[in-house]
Design goal:
It contains two helices and no strands. The chain is an all-alpha fold. The mean pLDDT is 91.
Length: 46
């Protein structure tokens, strides 16, 4: 049985990871670090 709340967290994690990757590719390391911290916080909630 799927857990909708957990599925939402996983989708949010994937979205943040894609944004972080985009920031790294475009040299915006400040934004990449901000997104990494958000991902870390989200992972703690899982």
């Amino acid at each position: 049985m799927a857990m909708p709340q957990r599925d939402d967290l996983i989708e949010e994690f994937k979205r943040l990871d894609a944004l972080r990757e985009w920031a790294v590719l475009h040299g915006d390391m400040e934004e990449a670090e901000r997104l990494r911290k958000m991902m870390e916080h989200l992972a703690d909630a899982m």
